[in-house]
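#structure-requests
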Amino acid sequence: APVAFVLPAGGIQQWDREGEALHDPDALAAFVDAMRSAVRPPVELHEIKDHINSTAFNETVLAIFDRWVAAGIVPAGRATVAA
C-alpha cells in the first residue's frame, strides 16, 4: 500500500508557532531538512509551508486520502446517521 508523509514546514507544535515563547526558526529548519533527507521513496513526501494545525495541512491530507479512495486503495465508506 502507498505511504504518504505530509511535512508541515511551518511547525508541528502549538508552542513552535511564530510569536510563541519557544519558537525557534533555526531548530525548525533543521528538523524540516532532516525529514526531507529521511523520507525516501516509495514514501510520497508532501511538504507544505504551513503549520500542522493549518487548513492547508488538513486539505493536503484529505486530498491524498481522497485520491486513494478514488484509486480503490482505500475503500469508500458509508455515511451513517445515529438516531
